[in-house]
Amino acid sequence: MSMYVNNCLCVIKLMDITWMSDLVCKKLRNKPLISQNLQENKIENQILCSVKPPEVGHTFHRNVVIKELKDNFNEIITSLYIEQSYLGLFDHELDHVLGMVLIEMLKQTALIGIKKLLNIYAHRLELIECDVIFFAFCEIKTKTEYSLNKNELKKELLLNKDKIIKVHLSILQSNKVITSGSLMFKHVSLIN
Q1: Which segments within the chain are labelled E, that is strand?
Q2: Residues 12-18: what's their mean pLDDT?
Q3: pLDDT at residue 26 tops 80
Q4: 14 band by pLDDT with thresholds 50, 70 and 90
Q5: pTM of the model
Q6: How many other C-beta atoms lie within 10 A of the C-beta of residue 37?
Q7: What CA–CA distance (Å, rounded) separates 28 from 136?
């Protein structure tokens, strides 16, 4: 794996796909009916998302991973939308949601919140930092929600004068935080 920042090679890492033995993985997961759950969960969730791809920086509707957008007085809440048959996000059979899909969920919810609070569109924002910690596996069949606190985001924006927007985040499953961290965006102009 090679990681580039601004077209500059920063990290090279050789990775072995079998980083964890089957025995260790089974102990960690402690889920006896994983294969049965996968078969039952083809495309169980057919709710179409009201979020349009350009609102979250995409052009293809299958890349939108949030649904059930709720905007109330203090917060914006989204739920994770999983389409396991889409190879762009699920290229092999899994019993949990990939970390990159969760990061995409956070990014999309943050972009919706920034648009609603600041009227800055996704195409005017560049993700410049992602600091995320995963505490537990994200189970596929369990409702997964992200809540963006509008008041916290407004406070962050008042303190910041550099066109940098930092969004603090958490993902909850069964009222338990499974992921938390922050995303930082830079407001970019269309004309250089």
Answers
A1: 2-5, 8-12, 66-71, 75-80, 125-134, 144-149, 164-173, 176-187
A2: 56
A3: no
A4: low
A5: 0.71
A6: 14
A7: 10
CA–CA separation, 8 and 125 (whole Å): 20
Q: Is the pLDDT of residue 157 over 60?
A: yes
- The amino acid that residue 22 corresponds to is D
One-letter amino acid for residue 162 of the chain: D
- Among the listed residues 144, 70, 140, 131, the one whose alpha carbon sits nearest the alpha carbon of residue 103: 131
Percentage of residues of the chain with pLDDT beyond 90: 10
CA distance 49 to 39: 24
Residue holding tokens 């019993």?
Answer: 95
Long-range Cβ pairs for the range 177-180 (8 Å, 24+): 177/135, 178/134, 178/135, 178/136, 178/137, 178/138, 178/144, 179/99, 179/102, 179/106, 179/132, 179/133, 179/134, 179/135, 179/138, 180/132, 180/133, 180/135
